[in-house]
Amino acid sequence: MKVIKFGGTSVGSANSILSVKRIVEAINEPLIVVVSALGGITDKLINTSKMAAAGDSSYENEFREIVYRHVEMIKEVIPAGEAQVSLQRRVGELLNELKDIFQGIYLIKDLSPKTSDTIVSYGERLSSIIAAQLTGAEWFDSRRFIKTEKKHSKHVLDTELTTSLVRETFKDMPRRVLVPGFISTDKITGEVTNLGRGGSDYTAAIIAAALDADALEIWTDVDGFMTADPKVISTAYTINELSYVEAMELCNFGAKVVYPPTIYPVCVKNIPILIKNTFNPSGKGTVIKSDIAEDQKPIKGISSINGTTLITVSGLSMVGVIGVNRRIFSALANNGISVFLVSQASSENSTSIGVRDADADAACEVLNAEFSKEIETGAMYRMTAESGLATVAIVGENMKHTPGIAGKLFGTLGRSGINVIACAQGASETNISFVVDSK
Ligand code: ADP
Ligand code: ASP
Ligand code: MG
């Protein structure tokens, strides 16, 4: 049995969803297909709600485009007849609900996170019923078995409950199943939630892990996992094989091709992940697994994230004091702020942490409060934050056997006149990250 996921562009147009149909039909084993919303629809749903909440009546035009995309796709891919009529009716009902919700938002000019989560869920609900009809697969509602709970005001997966519900749901699984990715419900209130932007990959991984699938396939719009984002680096090429660790390092650092939480559940079960191109199905793609073929390349890929802020915690009292780092990380963790890079030199008088721009103000506030006594006595300084930065990482498990990589990396940057603001390399030696000006 395998689980196979198609992203937004793969179901985004009549032509691409017809490729999906062909790919699914060529598979001769029990299959769970997970689909994202039609490409661009999640953004449009968010945008339409914001316009409506701001009292901008042209939200109606945006909404009409959402309607048009779905209605036209059905006309193009489902032959005229009873099946087409009944599908248009089901889709029409969902679109009518959506229309009422948008109108409500427009009238009361209020958009709560709960309403927003409900609205974005329509993207996958719509795309999945179209894809189910097209592929002849039985539709299952992932809101019934993907369950989240609230932690630090974020919705996170309840793995145990979800695993048992998935197993229960697919006890006697039909040969071909289709489920919407991304969407879920709160385990207590039953309200609609989601797994975060890009979360359909995660839906597929959760199901694959719960059912001990033979493989997880992620079908997207590029030829596999590449050495860098092909939209940024035109000479990037497909990597044949990656270890789970390498894939995780690259995804965590901005390789959008796989949503970061996707890797862990399948890695634990040793289920291989195959990344394939819906628009080039005969391409080899990339396999992510634990035992990859010997490969001499020290670096497998480069990834980067813009929108980095570096916060520096400093003060003379930090030298030799035990517990400053514990306080930094506890304070941030207790406020749900994620840190993706840490750099502390051995003189110990400052620790720099990399956070996303969106978290920067909150992080400074939390740390200034945590160290308010020390700041008052002058033992420590107020936090300083530098925004407008980018973090770049080079990744490869073979780096740990190869001296001179860091030298070559920083030498190259230096010769090119690029100033490194902070850097970090863990003892695992699989990743060297550095922070530079975004430019
Ligand atoms: P989907 O809608 O199928 O989930 P995404 O847009 O989420 O697709 O992910 C695919 C995109 O990820 C590619 O179009 C590419 O621009 C981007 N990307 C970033 N880094 C990489 C990488 N290292 N390898 C391949 N694609 C990458
Ligand atoms: N449709 C959702 C998004 O755009 C989930 C996904 O595509 O994986 O984020
Ligand atoms: Mg994606």
Description:
With 439 residues, this protein is α/β, with parallel strands linked by helices. It is built from 13 helices and 18 strands. The strands form three sheets. An eight-stranded mixed β-sheet has the order 3-6-2-1-9-11-12-10, sandwiched between helices. It has a six-stranded antiparallel β-sheet with strand order 14-15-13-16-18-17. Bound molecules: adenosine-5'-diphosphate (ADP), aspartic acid and magnesium ion. Aspartic acid is lined by residues 7-8, 36-37, 42, 123, 181-182, 197-200.
What distinguishing features does this structure have?
439 residues, alpha/beta, eight-stranded mixed beta sheet, six-stranded antiparallel beta sheet, 13 helices, 23% strand, globular, binds adenosine-5'-diphosphate, binds aspartic acid, binds magnesium ion
pLDDT < 50 runs, ≥5 residues: none
| Main β sheet profile | 8 strands, mixed
- What is bound: which ligands? adenosine-5'-diphosphate, aspartic acid, magnesium ion
Number of helices: 13
* Helix vs. strand class: alpha/beta
Distance between the termini: 46 Å
Q: Radius of gyration from the CA trace?
A: 24 Å
Helix content: 25-40%
